[in-house]
Amino acid sequence: MPYSPSGPLVFYPSYCFGLSPTFHTWARLTATDVHTLEFRSGFEGQNIYFHANHPIQWVRLVGVIVAFDVYPNRIIMTLDDSSGLPIEIFCRKNTNHSTSGIDTSVGNHGVITLNRVSVPKDDAHVCITSEGKVNLHAFDVGSVVKIKGGISEFRGEKQVTLERISLVRTTNEEAALWVDNATFHTDVLSRPWVVSDHEQRLAKDKAAGVDRKRKAKEERRRKTKEAEDRCGRRRQEEQDRGHERSRRGLQWKREAHQPERLSSRTR
């Protein structure tokens, strides 16, 4: 850990996470920071980790790509930011053979602009993020990049699941990003996250209110669906009765004309 607090760290309930300076932002970390993030029980399957008592789900990294491996269903980039440990950047490949996507063309200041383009079916560098399709053709070993993504694990090793990527064009831009990282560490990560009792009560009340609204909304949806199902069943029953009346009416007409046809034959 970057510091040793005098007392035990306080880990707050998840309803307080909205107050955290690290939870709803791209935490400025190094690759070594990501590897040393800790997991706590109770957050299984949520990809939430902790730096001291700071909850973190999204990270931003800056470094150079030292390996770029393309597999049938994924792309793995290895990022080295000189922090001591490299880290893998994972991206699931586009396997639906779509012919259109979003191209990450490089604009001013190395920012990636998403443009709708035609993507060949055999393009090996198209991958999928939660925001759409990204073409990584502009990136290769030696590219200095800014990576944003979530945290995941593979065979016990932490990795970053790619969400956004952009080229770092100049040394000045890279230096500014490292200054931003240092400021984030100094102002946020170097001290414990503290939530007052009053803030906790407000957060809990807010979470309870949101939960009540969610449950009330689900209850309204349930009742609406039940009413629609009842109406649907009534309509179906009425249709079935109408069909039955029609069937009986036709049967009655056939039976009523049957004696006439028989008498005509006997004559």
Describe the structure.
The chain is of the alpha+beta class. It is built from three helices and twelve strands; from the N terminus they run E-H-E-E-E-E-E-E-E-E-E-E-E-H-H. A hairpin with a 2-residue loop joins strand 9 and strand 10. The termini are far apart. Mean pLDDT is 81; it is low at 97-106 and 108-122.
SSE arrangement:
Blueprint: E1 27-28, H1 31-36, E2 49-51, E3 54-56, E4 58-70, E5 74-80, E6 87-93, E7 100-106, E8 112-118, E9 126-129, E10 132-135, E11 144-154, E12 157-167, H2 171-189, H3 197-266
Parallel strand pairs: 1-4, 6-12
Antiparallel strand pairs: 2-3, 4-5, 4-11, 5-6, 6-9, 7-8, 9-10, 11-12
Characterize the overall form. Answer: elongated
Question: Any idea what the radius of gyration is?
Answer: 31 Å
Distance between the termini: 110 Å
Structural class: alpha+beta
Helix and strand pattern: EHEEEEEEEEEEEHH
Give the key terms.
two-stranded antiparallel sheet, alpha+beta, elongated, 3 helices
Short description:
The chain is an alpha+beta fold and 267 residues long. It is 36% helix and 30% strand. The protein has helices at 31-36, 171-189, 197-266; strands at 27-28, 49-51, 54-56, 58-70, 74-80, 87-93, 100-106, 112-118, 126-129, 132-135, 144-154, 157-167.
